[in-house]
Amino acid sequence: MNLQTILSHPEKKKILENLLAEKIIGEVKNFLETLALAEREIFCEETKDVGNGFRTRSLDTPFGRIENLKVPRTRYENFSPFFLEPYKRSLFTLDELIIAMYQGGCSQRDIAKTLTHLLEGRYTASYVSRVVSVVEEKIKEFNERKIKKWYPFVYLDGTYMKIRRDVVEGEVVYIALGIDEDGYKEVIGFWIPGSDGESAILWKQFLYQLRERGLKEPLLFIGDGLKGLKEAVKEVYPLADFQSCILHKVRGTLKRVRRRDREALAVDLKKIYRQNSRERFIEAFKEVKGVWGKIYPLLFKGWEEDLESLTSYFKYPEGIRRSIYTTNVVERFIKEVKRRSKVVEVFPKPVSAEKVVYLVAVEMNESYRRRKVKGFEEVREELMSMRRKRYGGNGRGDGGGDGGGKCEEVEDNLKLRCNKFYTHKS
Fold first, then answer.
1. DSSP of 361-410, one letter per residue?
2. Phi/psi class of residue 228: alpha, beta or left (left: φ > 0; alpha: ψ in -120 to 50)?
3. For residue 128, which phi and psi values (nearest 5 degrees)?
4. Cα separations (Å) of 12 from 2, 23, 421?
5. Ramachandran angles phi, psi of 56, nearest 5°
6. What DSSP string describes 161-209?
7. Mapping DSSP to helix (H, G, I), strand (E, B) and coil, where does residue 311 land?
8. Where does residue 296 fall: left (phi above 0), alpha (psi -120 to 50 degrees), or beta otherwise?
9. How far apart are CA 293 and CA 355, in angstroms?
């Protein structure tokens, strides 16, 4: 039975529509939102306008209605993506879609190619080329822009994306996300160096890049349990604390026991990290270890080795602790990157992966500016006081104050290290 026969049969046509809708509607939404962001980059460059958040709207497609489609806005001009004419509520006709899917192979693997086929008919080749080149320029600007704000808290985490460099390998994207001096989250930068495994050495190089851009006087870095990460942080920022993600530690611990024990162990582990002081944390840890250590003698060896970095968050005001004892903040960003890149099984080159991460970062940063981190405003002055005591100066980052000497000494040493790293920068 050929495609035209299916289309001419109402019941079979309906079945085909439903099957496609179930598989594809989420990918259509992801693709359109990413395309709209890329278009806005072009629009803003040509008109000198700036991004101004998003509006949501519904869009009828052959697969069903897309709800809450994020359409980027600009501050001064009336921007609208070309694929979505003003007041238009539908995307493609069914015949257009089916023919294009037939040309694309009608498989899940070829969804992205099919959508590109449909959309490129609405854009000139020169415009598509312009989108690509401008986004590449924006990525470079994003990752080289000067960091002018103070970020008391910085989250570090990596994620894998499959990229082709002759052969296909999963490569690590290194990501830094901070909470700034006003309590807003922001993706500070990302880096894809080409390695097929996460490395503390590369984290150190990434941190030197951030320092060269102007990331100064952080109080606390929050990262996972990667061996050597804490030491990398302390080399680049010797006066900063390091918090090892407690939930990473919990997940790793649960994986090392039998399934039947996991639920009960999870309940006991919560008793440890939900304490309100370091002393009570350690006391609860000893109690839990005393029970479970009899069954699994080596289960808590890693906890004991990392106890200092697992409890760093207790040095900070209680009102902000729930936000700084895990890497959940940056993991949510990574989850959005994964959702957007789901339609691409393998990126043909590194810059293709960078585009997805960059466009998600732009969108999320705009979203982050709408709401401060819970509890930050109440502890802001206390954090500024901690900064003054630790780094000297007046807490405003201008180098004034009696304690500036120790910062200058650290700064001189780090400049030597930075020069060493950038000589060998890949």
1. HHHHHHHHTTSPPTTHHHHHHHHHHHHHHHH-TTSSSS--STTHHHHHHH
2. left
3. -60, -40
4. 12, 17, 63
5. -115, 150
6. EEEEESEEEEEEEEEEEEE-TTS-EEEEEEE----SS--HHHHHHHHHH
7. coil
8. beta
9. 47
> pTM for this structure?
0.72
Cα gap 239→236, rounded to integer Å:
9
- Cβ neighbours for 166, distance < 8 A, ≥ 6 positions apart: none
- CA distances 173 to 97, 138, 326, 341, Å, are 34, 18, 19, 13
- Cβ atoms within 10 A of the Cβ of 276, count? 10
Phi, psi for residue 189 in degrees, rounded to 5: -175, 165
Structure-token pair, residue 186: 């922001």
- CA gap 49, 120 in Å, rounded: 25
Residues making up the chain, counted from first to last: 426
Which of 36, 373, 417 is CA-nearest to residue 177?
A: 373
Q: Inform me whether the pLDDT recorded for 326 exceeds 80.
A: yes
Please state, in angstroms and rounded to a whole number, the distance separating the CA atoms of residues 137 and 263: 49
Q: Are strands 220-223 and 153-165 parallel, antiparallel or unpaired?
A: parallel
Give the dihedral of Cα atoms 187, 303, 242, 274; nearest 10 deg.
Answer: 70
pLDDT digit string, tens, across residues 366-386: 889 989 999 999 999 999 999
What is the end-to-end Cα distance of the chain in Å, rounded? 55
Q: Read off the pLDDT of residues 189-204 as tens digits, 9 standing for 90 and up.
A: 999 998 878 899 999 9
SS3 154: strand
